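Known limitations

Structure tokens in this collection are predictions and should be treated as such. Users comparing against experimental data should check residue numbering before alignment. To illustrate the layout, the record for Secreted protein is reproduced below. The input appears on top and the generated tokens appear beneath it.
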Amino acid sequence: MRTCIPIVFLCIHSVAAIYAADLLTIDDGVVRVGIDREKGGAITWLSSHEYPSNIVNVADPGRLIQQSYYAGRRLNRVTEGQHKAWSPWSWNPIQGGGVGQGGDSGTWSRVTQFRKTESSLYSETIPKLWDMADEEADAVMRQWSTFEPDMAGVVAVTCELQAMRDKEDRWGGPTKNPQETPACYFTRNFDDVRSYLGEGRWRKEAQPTGPPWGKTMPPRKAMAMFEASGQGVAVFSPTATQSWNFGPHGSGLSDQPDVGPCMHVAPIDRVLMGHQTTYRFRYWLVIGDETDIAKRLDMLWGKYSQEQSQVTHKNSQ
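Generated tokens:
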């Protein structure tokens, strides 16, 4: 029996090491943010010194804080395994993975690069098409996450999609689609939703349980969600050009990140997406109470209100 103890210890230690390697995090003393190798390299952890629990809903590949894009015409592919609830559907690569079938929670996207430095995180992902159980998209997603200089509690994220579709594929030619910049899902207890108006002013937003989601146009390109104690998370997306999607899903005010009920917000840009388009943008996550978030959002607006996304098309679209 004594000879087994070291072996068991080593096995447990190895499993713990593997699990730790799948979640990379960085911390600036105020906020902690993490990406998960097993969940498409998307952001799966967000917490703060004042709210140490995870804010991000990770119940399935469609949640998280992640990249999600749309292009081409909507197709009915049910006979090929497309989920009936998501048919017909356009070309929709998402960082997390594909929708589940038959009660499973879906399939996660494949991560090809995954690393961190002291203050940054990087992932490179082959995304899945959302409407299918396990179909990789002809695309690569890249993501850089770091902290905004001289702004404690602010995470800056750069996202990039490189579409590599065949010009003769079934989805057809270029289309100008709404793009989520990004898609965000938080725990259900962050149910106090507000648009930021600037200089410490907020507009409360209300929406019945969805989907469908509500729509609103925040004038300072920022929305926040707060929980009962006053802690909140804001999304600032200066390249958004359309009304944002937002709202609750499910009942109750659960603070658990792995259950169905959640809160959703997605800034929206409208972009011409062709077969071989590269699309790049930045957004910011701000953690804190109402006063702290307002102060940071004013500073971000002063620095980045004129920022634009970058769109390039390779060869003829």
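For this record: The chain has one domain: 23-313. The chain has two helices and 24 strands. Please report discrepancies through the issue tracker.
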